[in-house]
Amino acid sequence: MGEWHVVWVPDPGQWGTPPADGNFGVHDLPEAVARIGLKPGDPVYVRPDGIVDRDFLDFVRSKAFRKLERETKRNYGTDYRLLLNFLSSRGLSWRHATPQVLDDYRDWRCDAPENPKRIGGTKWDREAAAFTKLFKWGKVDPLPVDISRSEDRAADSVSSRVSWLTPRTWGLWSDIGLRGHTRAGLATPMWVSRTELRNTSFVQLLLSSGLRRQEGGSLLVFELPTQRLRHGRYMHGHIAGAVTRSKSSRTFYASVDSVGQVEAYVVSERAWVVRRAQEAGRYQRLPMIRLITRVTHGLSPKVEWVDSDGVVGGEELSRLDWRERQWLFIDGPDGPEPAWLWLTEQGLPMAPDRWNGVFRTANVRCEETLLTEEERKIRRQFRVAEVQGKTPYVTPHSCRHSMALYMLVLLNELFEKRYGLTKKDLRDFALLFGDPWWLVKSLLGHADVETTKRHYLAPVAHLQLESILAAAETTNEGQKVEDLDGLFARLARETAGIQDIDMILGEVP
To answer: How far is it, in rounded angstroms, from Cα 289 to Cα 284?
Structure first.
């Protein structure tokens, strides 16, 4: 084989058809894998000699690794494989790695000109965290790398995936990428999308609420916000701790319009795919179904169910992770249907990571519409800044970044212009309720306001928004106060990293 390989434990029902004589003498491989303590999404490491590595099998089943999120397991699992191949090329096992060897590996990964796929500081910090966990579990002494040591962390560790779009630019991206419009805003002839309402509803919900992809992508139909706030523009809901990064439940807020769009999706596109799935008998063939019999209310709502074998069970809603949520069904008018909100065209729960593909496809449509044929031939990472700036580029997390930027600007505008607070009033208000930074931090569910400033609002963290907004109050001729669209457009011109429609379409004054 020549190098290490990693195999991922499939989900139930995804094992395929086993050979008649079994696999390596094992007739029920899924049961055998479960019996040794491996879970779906766990990595299994195969050495260059074709033998499963027992050390790594023990590590994967350990408390240190088992509690990680599935996506983190996949990221760390890939990082370990690269390190194992590097160590193997030097005739070393991971238990014999030294600080000098890890320094050499870091140099190759981050700085070596001979490496065509060098990584940045943020990616290295993730790898260092993964290696630290492994070496600590294996009691390797001295630790070859320790993410808690400043010298083992990258100085340039700021995420390159952060992107901000102004509200009008989100409209452009959605119209072209998700609705199939032309550059002129007209519907493309022969455009057909059976998931347009689902996709646009998901984007609007994340833009309005600031939920992460997994948080918004694993909502159940009965978790949609229903209670309006005082003036009716926003509604609040509850996000389960098991699907959050911090494992802590919290309240989230979404606009009435965005929730209304999701409700329209539920009674139209979603109802249609559910009916087709029921007619095709897809739900009866699923390996795991838990039919909800009761949902309690109160501070700790609980879901009670009966599975396809008649076994009764239940759990607090906040403790159900996204995989368990996919097994939940409700008794609909035409039979059982998924409680999971977002469904595929086949009527099955759409895993949160599949939204990445929806966003990638929309980005490609924007490129095809807004770039010339010659510009499209160049891969995005090699395009000059002028060409990159001609088309919006979005990831699911961009919704969260943009919501943070929008709320910060809006809160500053409210504090300074609409409320007319003096500097003393602002200080008193901040002591009682927190300043705009703190309020945005709370909306995002961050534990530390510095995270909000550094990773989400870096383009404006160095700006005195008070002076920007003060300058926006009147023009030199004493004309109308600048609106938020104009303010965002000016922020985009004066600050790196913010995508705005005027710059994309070449309408900068």
So the answer is: 9
Strands 312-316 and 302-307: antiparallel
Could you say which DSSP state residue 15 is in? S
pLDDT tens-digit readout, 300-337: 899 999 998 999 999 999 999 998 999 999 999 999 99
Q: Is the confidence at residue 59, as pLDDT, over 50? A: yes
CA–CA gap between residue 390 and residue 386 (Å, rounded): 7
Copy the structure tokens of residue 363: 């980005």
Q: C-alpha distances in angstroms, 470 versus 268, 277, 434, 509?
A: 46, 56, 21, 21
| Identity of the amino acid at 468 | I
Asked if pLDDT for residue 471 goes beyond 50, the answer is no
At 252, give phi and psi (nearest 5°).
Answer: -125, 160
**Predicted local distance difference test score (pLDDT) of residue 273:** 97
pTM of structure:
0.75
Q: Cα(457)–Cα(436) distance, rounded to whole angstroms?
A: 12
- Per residue, what are the HEC states of 21-71? CCECCECCHHHHHHHCCCCCCCEEEECCCCCECHHHHHHHCCHHHHCCCHH
467, burial (CB in 10 Å: exposed 0-12, middle 13-18, buried 19+): exposed
pLDDT at 271 over 70: yes
CA atoms within 13 A on the CB side of 144: 28
Q: Which residues contact 427 (CB under 8 A, 6 or more apart)?
A: none
Q: In whole angstroms, give the CA distance from residue 176 to residue 387.
A: 18
Which of 440, 470, 434, 466 lies closest to 454, judged by CA?
A: 440
Average pLDDT of span 409-437 = 59
Instruction: Fill in the amino acid letter for 325.
Output: R
How many whole angstroms separate alpha carbon 307 and alpha carbon 74?
A: 29
How crowded is residue 362: how many other Cβ atoms within 10 Å of its Cβ?
23
Q: What is the mean pLDDT of the chain?
A: 84
**Distance from C-alpha of 304 to C-alpha of 291, rounded to nearest angstrom:** 8
Q: Assign 3-state DSSP to the chain and report helix, strand, coil percentages, each to 5.
A: 50, 10, 40
Q: Which residue has the higher pLDDT, 475 or 61?
A: 61
Q: Which two tokens stand for residue 223?
A: 């978790």
Gap between the Cα atoms of 156 and 310, Å rounded:
55
> What 3-state class would DSSP assign to 447?
coil
SS3 196: helix
H or E element that contains 104: helix 99-110
**403 within 8 A of 204, measured Cβ to Cβ:** no
In this model, does residue 144 exceed pLDDT 90? yes
Q: What single letter denotes the amino acid at residue 434?
A: G
Task: For helices 355-370 and 196-209, give the axis angle rounded to 10 degrees.
Answer: 100
Query: What is residue 248's DSSP assignment?
Result: -
- Beta-carbon contacts of 108 under 8 Å, excluding residues fewer than 6 positions away, are 86, 115
Distance CA 342, CA 340 (A): 6
What whole-number distance in Å separates Cα of residue 20 and Cα of residue 25? 10
As a whole number of angstroms, the distance between CA 21 and CA 469 comes to: 73
